[in-house]
Amino acid sequence: MTTIDPEFENLLVHLREVRGFDFTGYKRSSLMRRVHRRMSQVPVTTYGEYQDYLEVHPEEFTTLFNTILINVTGFFRDPEAWSHLRSEVLGPMIAARGDEATIRVWSAGCASGEEAYTLAIVLAEMIGIDQFRKRVKVYATDVDEEGLTQARHASYSERDVSSLPPEILEKYFETSANRYVFRKDMRRSVIFGRNDLVQDAPISRIDLLVCRNALMYFNAETQARILARFHFALCDDGVLFLGKAEMLLSHTSMFVPVDLKRRIFRKVPRERPVNGGFMADMPPAVPRAELVALDALRGEAFAASPVAQIVVTADGLVAQANRQAETLLGVSAKDVGRPFRDLDVSYRPAELRGYIEQAQIERRTARVGDIEFPSVNGETTYLDIQVTPLVDGASHLLGVTLIFNDITVARRLHDELEHTNQQLETAYEELQSTNEELETTNEELQSTVEELETTNEELQSTNEELETMNEELQSTNDELQSINDQLRDRTEQLDDANAFLEAILTSLRGGVAVLDADMRVRAWNRRAEDMWGLRRDEAVGQHFLNLDIGLPTDQLRAGIRSVMTDPSEPVELKLLAVNRRGRGIDVRVMCSALVDVTGTGSGVLLVMEELGAR
Ligand SMILES: C[S@@+](CC[C@H](N)C(=O)[O-])C[C@H]1O[C@@H](n2cnc3c(N)ncnc32)[C@H](O)[C@@H]1O
User: Fold this and answer.
1) According to a count of CB atoms within 10 Å of the terminal CB, is the N or C end of the chain lower?
2) Which protein residues touch ligand 1 with a CB less than 6 Å away?
3) What residue ranges of the chain are covered by domains with CATH 3.30.450.20?
4) What global pTM score does this model have?
């Protein structure tokens, strides 16, 4: 038993007032669990906080409703029950209705539509697709708009349709982009709409009402209200098909089981009111004198019966009442001969006059069951009253006998049994709803696992790509390393060659200047530095003719040009110059062409030799 939590009840009232969703009739245990689940995801800890959260985040309502309204479903859920429904209920029903009759079925609490399309398939398999389109209407309703939208699309994944045999899948579904879509021509006969089982008026004239795995979420009182609506919705011989956890044991006055195991019930039609006045048109009464002339033995046997009994003549007079009738009902011998309708017992504890009339007209026993009656000792007694017509050999009505069976003990046992059954029913329903919750949680977990698997695969492939890139980088690195090694070797060789050249230049007795094709100084040896007082770093890169030294370089211009034009003819010149100390000196300058291995000139080599001071 769940205790009432006022804060939770306030939250339910808030949901009803703000969004029109009435969850007050839902079983608290499952409902609270679902709300808690959502609260922990927000996260908040108290119902009050959650109500505040809903006020600030109106989009939370949809998420909450999706969490509360468990929508586990499937095609042909409990296949054995469906096949029994088809052969034992729908077969005879369709045959009895005839070839032209329309068939109206209602899937109440249809979730994403699988149940409604199952109904369509079952009926089309029985009467053919053409007849189905002409004669059948499948009404499918739910309170959950999102579920209805999915149902209207009629598009299902491979997993959704996995319970269907291949030939049914082939016949009733079209495939499009890996989805299975219920065939359009039949879909027109399946009408989806929003209907709240707790608040909305039912659909009427229904032959088969399928409401599976929805009732179990409601408390007993709300279930009773919904069942009264279902009773109204069904035709007099209509059938109600419930989910396997829903037994309806406590509603035997509205429905009787056709097959309790498969949860198939038939409506008990309402009794028609009895018409006509009390005993007005009855056959002539048996003369009173004859009645009072009953022999003593019969009289005593009657009087001693432990069951209260009153006999009334056809014209409504009390003919006899036994001792138990006196004890229980206060009707005694002194009432014999009085009109029965003048006695209290004629209308209290039950209105018996109508039943007496009914028994007389129909000539069969009428029963008034389960009447609560405060007995003389103050305890409540329950009576089952049997009103039986009495006729003579020629079928003339003599009167009626009223037998008052005391069923208090039986009733108590029945109540206890019913109570136990109800507890059993509730426990079973709770078990089933918990099961469905677990299924939902399982599905959620499964999809999380699938997401993680996908992420893992993606990470793995990224990892593989990175590994490939790494390998490529490694090989590029190796290549760069070998190029680097080669470059280092080359550099070392060049350094050697440079050092070698440097040594040659340094060892030469004369000053040496190497010019490129533009007459810019490329090399300038130690001796040249000494002669002209110009450091190598000051000379290299400068135009030779622009050097500020004691050598009259402009006198060399023609010689240099000539060597450049004809590399095979060196030119020798003697010039007057001034050395770095400012002394006049004679200098011999040898201009030779700088040629490469192909013999092409690429500059000029000037060797400057001091011949002596002047
Ligand atoms: C567990 S599903 C059952 C679906 C389907 N009948 C089956 O058995 O496979 C319960 C359905 O009842 C619906 N439901 C819950 N409360 C409802 C209400 N007050 N009125 C109509 N449907 C309701 C839910 O939205 C959900 O789709």
Assistant:
1) N
2) 69-74, 77, 109-111, 115, 142-144, 147, 196-198, 212-214, 217, 243, 436
3) 288-406, 508-613
4) 0.56
